Structures are given as C-alpha cells and as structure tokens.
Amino acid sequence: MARPLSHQFNPVKNNKGFYRCKRFPYHEGRLTNFHNTGAPFLVIMNKKLLVPIDRTEPSSNLFHYLSQLFAHRNDIELHLFSVCKIDSAINVLRDDSEKDILAALSPREKLYYKSCLQSLENDKKRLERRGFKPSCISFKVKLTSGDYAKLIADEACQKGCDAIVVREVDNVDLKEQGAGSLSATLREQTEKIPVWLINGYIESKKFLVPVDGTNQSLQSAKHLGFIIGGDPQAEITLFNADTLFFKKAPINPEDYYEQWTSEWTKKHLDRPDRLFHAPEQILLEQGLKEEQIKRVTTKKGIYPSRQILRQALIGDFGTIVMSQGPQGFSRGIFKSVTAKVCAMAEDVAIWLTGDF
After folding, report:
1. Given a cut of 90, is residue 302 above it in pLDDT?
2. Selection from 177-191, 231-245, 285-299, 329-343 with the highest mean pLDDT
3. Do residues 74 and 136 lie in contact, with contact meaning Cβ atoms separated by under 8 Å?
4. What is the DSSP string of 90-111?
5. DSSP code string of 250-281
6. Digit-coded pLDDT (tens) for 263-276
7. CATH class, range 48-196
8. Beta 348-352 vs 235-241: how paired, if at all?
9. Where are the domains of the chain?
10. To 10 degrees, the CA torsion angle through 254, 257, 261, 267?
11. pLDDT tens digits for range 97-146
12. How many CB atoms neighbour CB 336 within 10 A?
C-alpha cells in the first residue's frame, strides 16, 4: 500500500466537475477511490494516455510497448485518437458540431471517415487481444483540416489526459530538430502534459531517471511515480554522472517550497544525499518499494547525452524519464541534453515531463 502523505494529495472539485490534485496541476483527475491509511486521505486515480494513431504506419511497436507496461493494470486508460483530414471541413464553421460536419461531407469523404473509424475499432481489438480490458480503451476520429499538433493538444486537454504517447514516425520534426516542433507545440497547448516518444521495438520494462538535484529532475520522478506507483513489476534506476554537474549552482531549498512544501523540502532536500534521496522519496511516496529503486553514479564520459544513452544500453533500460525543461532553462542538464538524447535514441522510449 502506498505510503500516506497528508500534504501530497489535495483534490479540489473545480467548476467542470473534475478533481484537481494539488501536486499534479496538469492532471484533472478521475477520482476513483479513497483508502483509510491513517492520514486524512489517500487518492487513487486512473491514468489516461492519449495515443494518436496514424493509419499510414503500423502501430505494432507502440502497442507492444504499452502492453508490456500496462496490460496487467486496471488503472490505465488508453484513448486512441485519429485525425481524418478532409477538404469539406475547410468550409465548415469552427463551432459546428460533428454531425453538421458529417452532413457536409462528399460520399467519398464519408467512406474515408468510416474507414478511419473501422481502423480504430480494429486497433481497440488488437489491444484487447494483448491484455487490455475493453473498458480501459476508448477511441475517437476527428474530422478536420486543421493543425495536427493542435488537435492532439485540444483532445488531451478535453479528456484530461496524463500523457501523450507519440511514435517516432509521428514525431519526425522533433527528432530532426532536437526536441522542437511537435513536442514544443504540445507542451504549450496542453499546459505541459508529458509527451512520451516511442522509438522502435522495446522489450525492457526498466526505467532510467537522470537526476541532478534540480526541480526538473524531481518533476520527472513525480510523473514516473504517478504513472507506475504501486506496480510490483517496476524497476527504476536513478542515474547521475559526476562529471556533468561540477558547474551546478548550489540549491536553495526555499525555491522548492511552493511545489513541495517547506516541511518536505527541509526533510528531504536539505541533506548531503539529496541528489538521490529526494527523487527516491517521491517514488516511495507513490507506492513503490525500496527494493524497486537503485542508484547509479558514474564518472565516465564527456557528453551528458551519450552517458545517458550508454547507461540505457548497458543496463538494458526500455524507458528514459527526463525533463524537457521550460523555455530559457539554463540550470541543470536538461535543456541541452534532452534534444540530443531524442535525436540519438533507438529502441528506447523517452518520457519528456516538462516543468509543471
């Protein structure tokens, strides 16, 4: 059972009828259960992932990755989303309903729409065969001629998704330009909902989390813990390379009070081993066990991005969890390193968590 933390969860019902969690401002959570653990309350939330589907490319690698990690879980919801680009939509008013848009389609476009819908129904059945429950999978086809990234962002916001899962083939601009384009657009449009990049065929279930003591690395640990907390199959390694951080400015604990409260910061950040202890504590608070978390420090190598990818390769990690960092971010490793990791990564998933 997850360790109770009275300050960690503070769900407040907003005017939309959703519960917003204080420590997860990007998440309009679907409140599912309370547990009496001695603390005032502990909230267990379902996690919803938006999965954009492009019919021009197979989704086998993406479905395999999601199935490996989450098919055995009942708290993971997948929302498959496909964009049906049509010419008639150009002349349809923005505020028109889906029904009005359908009525404006030509016979050929209606057939195309039906084929898109059938394709998602088939994808849903494929995921069910891989172990997902039918109730955990929803899908939608969007009729439009608008911007692809904006449509994904709008759908993620409307559905209250906790992450957007993007295949490498759907993210060519990001890979070529170094964590730009689609990723930057999605973060701007969705209040910084994390974006997961799935590169190639991934078999390993192990997670690698680069840490440097900054708030950005703590946010990465928080997102990972929120998604996989309580999963006994999860294996996590907190990774630090000493040679990367010799210019790192001293950390001022007061800078963390707003996100983590002064009591938590003084207890877990104002200590010599804060580099590993703070993210480790966050993971423990999310329901993970000490034996599921390892610490690794290395002094090898010169380039941060290569050290991270090298560790992912030799340690057989399937997922790297790191912050993309806010615009103008200059402290820590993430602004310059994340782009290079995204550009060089093969057969590994990268969760870009942003700065919440």
Report:
1. no
2. 285-299
3. yes
4. GGS-TT--HHHHHHTS-HHHHH
5. PP-GGGGHHHH-HHHHHHHTSSTTHHHHHHHH
6. 888 888 888 888 89
7. alpha beta
8. unpaired
9. 48-196, 206-352
10. -30
11. 666 667 777 788 888 888 888 999 999 999 999 999 999 999 998 887 66
12. 15
| Fold match between domain 48-196 and domain 206-352 | yes
Tens-place pLDDT, residues 220-235: 999 999 999 889 999 9
Hey, which residues does 209 pair with through a beta bridge? Answer: 238
38 is written with which tokens?
A: 């001695």
How open is the CA angle 213-47-267, to the nearest 5 degrees?
30
> Could you tell me which of 259, 239, 202 has the C-alpha nearest to residue 321?
239
Residue with tokens 């057989």: 316
Alpha-carbon distances, residue 348 vs 61, 140, 258, 317, 351 (angstroms): 11, 27, 33, 7, 10
Answer whether 319's CB lies under 8 Å from 206's CB: yes
Domain 206-352 has CATH 1.10.10.10: no
Residues facing residue 196 across a β-bridge: 165, 351
Write the single-letter amino acid at 17: G
Instruction: Specify burial of residue 299 (Cβ count, 10 A radius: 0-12, 13-18, 19+).
Output: exposed
